[in-house]
Design brief:
By secondary structure, this protein is mainly β. The chain folds into two domains: 22-90, SH3 type barrels, CATH 2.30.30; 100-218, Acid Proteases (Cathepsin D, subunit A, domain 1), CATH 2.40.70. It is 5% helix and 51% strand. The chain has two helices and 18 strands. The protein has helices at residues 137-143, 199-202, and strands at 22-25, 28-36, 39-44, 50-53, 62-67, 71-76, 79-84, 89-90, 100-104, 112-117, 120-126, 133-136, 151-157, 160-174, 177-187, 195-197, 205-210, 213-218. Strands 10, 11, 12, 13, 14, 15 and 16 form a seven-stranded mixed beta sheet that branches. The chain has a five-stranded mixed beta sheet with strand order 4-3-2-1-8, with no helix packed on it. β6 and β7 form a beta hairpin.
């Protein structure tokens, strides 16, 4: 979804995840039997396992939106569903009493919204290709994030490898959705104009894309 130059965040080498998920949407059943960066090994309606790459659609109407070594986002009949290890997701929408927020795409097709990290306001860009919430050192300092106490590592960016710190945010809020203990990374190097709202936050939600709107609903 995102065209941000830092769109794939991996602190450690991704590995094959031997797993199985089931999701029923309309008459479609999808089983994920392997996950890789930008690819998923799936069985659809009990058929032979096949590889789907990000952006690729199967004849059954299943499209892979994003994938990491931990989770994958699929679009089925216009609905986005996240599958991860040990989780099964119903095709039906979440009950209306669950916290949710609806975002509208900007002129570039990006979903941008304000939110807070540990009480400090930041501008988020929804990025299903980002493993974690990600921000620049400058933004971390502005928010009061003590990133130097995090775990040092490195990530691959469009400009090469950059130093980064893995951190844990106590509380992340977008609209009425509040999640606790959300993993993030603080990146040294070029300043990012927004904070990437990556899969460490999104994979705990149900996502529904409908044209230029994206509805996020808290799963648990």
């Amino acid at each position: 979804m995102s065209h941000n130059p830092i769109s794939r965040l991996f602190l450690f080498p991704a590995t094959l995840v031997a797993c199985c998920f089931t999701i029923a949407a309309m008459a479609v059943e999808v089983n994920v039997v392997g996950l890789f960066p930008d690819k998923a090994l799936v069985e659809i309606n009990g058929g032979r396992a096949r590889i789907l790459s990000v952006g690729q659609s199967a004849a059954e109407g299943v499209k892979l939106i994003s994938a990491t070594g931990e989770s994958a986002v699929f679009e089925i009949e216009g609905k986005w569903r996240t599958l991860q290890l040990g989780q099964s997701i119903s095709a039906h929408f979440a009950a209306p009493d669950k916290p949710s927020v609806t975002l509208v795409a900007d002129g570039r097709g990006h979903f941008v919204t304000s939110g807070t990290i540990d009480g400090a306001t930041t501008q988020f860009l929804v990025d299903t290709g980002a493993t974690s919430i990600a921000m620049s050192v400058a933004e971390a300092r502005r928010l009061g994030v003590n990133y130097l106490r995090g775990e040092p590592g490195s990530i691959a960016t469009a400009g090469g490898t950059a130093s980064a710190y893995r951190v844990m945010f106590d509380r992340v809020k977008v609209g009425d959705i509040v999640l606790t203990q959300v993993e993030g990374v603080v990146i040294e190097g070029p300043t990012m104009s927004v904070t990437l709202l990556g899969m460490s936050f999104l994979n705990r939600l149900e996502m529904k894309r409908d044209g230029t709107t994206l509805t996020l609903t808290k799963n648990y």
